[in-house]
Design a protein that fits this description.
By secondary structure, the protein is of the alpha+beta class. The chain has one domain. Helix content is 18%, strand content 31%. Strand 10, helix 2 and strand 11 form a beta-alpha-beta unit. The longest helix has 15 residues. The radius of gyration is 17 Å and the shape is globular.
Length: 199
């Protein structure tokens, strides 16, 4: 894996390192706490004066994953995005993927080819199913392919880090990625990705 991922810049984010956010509000009109680590990946922030059961104003924070342009190998960077008034996992992930596939601007990279389209994402009992356009398979060497695969797996599991991911291209399961033949064992998990594709 000689080539370094360099295609498009991504938005500022946070490292995948274990980071926890704890918000504690005390007092008569204040509300409860929100706690989720970067590996639990959903933070529900309730405005002041709102408690459980009063979620009409809730916002959900999901994570999308970029690549560190300064790393010699694939290094994923988590960037939070806020999804307005949505409690549906499918909608949250679809919104996260739309932002991941849009042209980023900032200091991070993506090796997902420009113009790759999200054709569908669903959350089923057997895991998260992601369907992308054929553009996803184009261009780049092995490092580029590993980088884009990691971006998809980690973004797909941002609501549940242990969820299996099923990756389709144009509605068909993707057995091999790239001209160098990265064989995929579906479904894929973060653990599978780290064990097989990271140094």
């Amino acid at each position: 894996m000689q080539d370094r991922p360099k295609i498009r810049s991504g938005s500022l984010g946070f490292t995948i390192a274990a980071t926890a956010v704890v918000v504690v509000a005390a007092g008569g009109g204040m509300t409860w706490w929100a706690f989720k680590s970067l590996f639990n990946n959903v933070i529900v922030t309730l405005p002041e004066g709102k408690g459980p059961g009063k979620q009409e104003s809730e916002k959900v924070r999901a994570l999308i994953y970029w690549l560190d342009p300064n790393a010699s190998d694939v290094k994923l960077i988590a960037s939070p995005v806020t999804i307005e008034k949505s409690a549906d996992k499918k909608e949250i992930l679809a919104s996260a993927f739309q932002r991941l596939l849009a042209d980023p601007n900032g200091d991070y990279n993506t090796t997902i080819p420009q113009s790759t389209k999200l054709l569908g994402v669903t959350v089923e009992t057997d895991g998260v199913h992601v369907n992308l356009s054929a553009k996803f398979k184009e261009g780049g060497g092995s490092t580029s392919m590993v980088g884009r695969l990691g971006q998809i797996i980690y973004t797909a599991t941002s609501l549940n880090p242990s969820a299996p991911v099923w990756l389709d291209v144009e509605g068909e399961a993707l057995p091999v990625l790239g001209g160098e033949g990265i064989v995929l064992q579906q479904p894929m998990t973060r653990e599978y990705f780290e064990a097989n594709f990271l140094p």
